Amino acid sequence: MPHSHLTTLNAVSLVLSTFKAEGMPNEVLLAGSGIRAADLSRADSRITTDQEMRVCANAVALRREIGLELGLRMHVSSYGMLGYALLTSATLGDALRLALRYPALLGTLFDLSLEVQDDIVWFCANGYRENPQLAVFNTELCLVSLKTICNDLLGQPLPLLAARFAHSAPDYRAQYGKSLDCPHRFDASDNAFAFARHWLEHPLPLADAVTHQAMAERCRRQNREFTGRQTWLDRIRQLLADQLHAAPGVEGLAEQMNCSPRTLRRHLHAVGCSYQALLDDLRFERAKSLLNETEWPIYRIADTLGFSETASFRHAFIRWSGVSPSQFRA
Question: HTH araC/xylS-type domain location, by residue (predicted)?
Answer without folding.
Answer: 234-330
